[in-house]
Amino acid sequence: MSITENIVDANQYIINDEPYYEPVDQEIALYESAYAVRMPMMIKGPTGCGKSRFVEYMAWKLGKPLITVACNEDMTASDLVGRFLLDKDGTKWQDGPLTTAARIGAICYLDEIVEARQDTTVVIHPLTDHRRSLPLDKKGELIQAHPDFQLVISYNPGYQSLMKDLKQSTKQRFGGMDFDYPKEKIEVSIVAKESGVDVETAEKLVQIAHRARNLKGHGLDEGISTRLLVYSGQLIAKGVSPLAACSMTMVTPLTDDPDMRDTLNAAVETFF
Ligand code: ADP
After folding, report:
1. Atom 23 (ligand 1): residue with closest C-alpha?
2. What is the sign, positive or negative, of the torsion defined by CA atoms of 42, 45, 48, 51?
3. DSSP letters of the chain?
4. Model pLDDT, residue 59
């Protein structure tokens, strides 16, 4: 059996170009302080409100590599930590993304952590306390995390249920930051800048979103995200009629309920 170490080039995970990020509050300074003490961070907020963009921006600002993992319920601990693979030369250990991040000193961003099963989530425990270590049980190796390593998780409180939540023993290893859709003026700037539409159109899109967000819990599970507003603006900037663009991005993806669609379409028609 040949065990070949996989050597990873940390540079591939460095973000070279400044991601566009519009600060919404004190989050940049707070995150910098949390990073300075390598505090594991939990970023909470609805889908598409800027959590991932913020983490990308912070990784760029701090000049650290970023490794992102989209969590899902089929994910196993081995998907995070690594596994032995068989190839023509024998057996080869392949580090998982969490292990790579701990070795090279990356920020490891576990997106939508609640999607992962609890037996998967517990592998992060030794990395998130004073030990800052990761046991690779199958390989018989104990990794000491690189001094630059930090773990960040995101989670959407809207999807919280008894079935899908983090255990207290996991939660209480993180500092938390609440995110929400940006305030009106900031969201208008984001939509205009990201999509290329004029400010007046961006304002209308944000107004529609505000109406729809009021319907959360009254027929809609989740409000229209900033991401969808950007999509809408991108279509409009490409010459698609605003009504069609809004229908494609702000109505159809959100709900299949005919009454709710009528309500949303009516909101769109008020502005366009
Ligand atoms: P999520 O909260 O699901 O991780 P993202 O970070 O992917 O959401 O944000 C979705 C989109 O919204 C981004 O691609 C970006 O266009 C836009 N966005 C949201 N908030 C901001 C912000 N503060 N600055 C710049 N872009 C933002």
Report:
1. 22
2. negative
3. ---PPPP--GGGG---SPPP----SSHHHHHHHHHHTT--EEEE--TTSSHHHHHHHHHHHHT--EEEEE--TT--HHHHHEEEEEETTEEEEEE-HHHHHHHHTPEEEEETGGGS-HHHHGGGGGGGSTT-EEEETTTTEEEEPPTT-EEEEEE-GGG--SSS---HHHHTTSEEEE--SPPHHHHHHHHHHHH---HHHHHHHHHHHHHHHTTBTTTBSS---HHHHHHHHHHHHTT--HHHHHIIIIITTT---HHHHHHHHHHHHHH-
4. 98
- How much is the pTM? 0.94
196 C-alpha vs ligand 1 centroid, how far in Å? 15
Q: Whose CA is nearest to atom 3 of ligand 1?
A: 48
CB atoms within 10 A of CB 106: 26
Which residues of the chain fall short of a pLDDT of 50? 1-4
- 136-146 pLDDT, tens digit each: 999 999 999 99
Spatial CB neighbours of 85, under 8 Å, sequence gap ≥ 6: 91, 92, 93, 94
Ligand 1 in contact with 49 (CB < 6 A)? yes
Any idea what the Cα angle at residue 261 is, between residues 238 and 268, rounded to 5°? Answer: 45
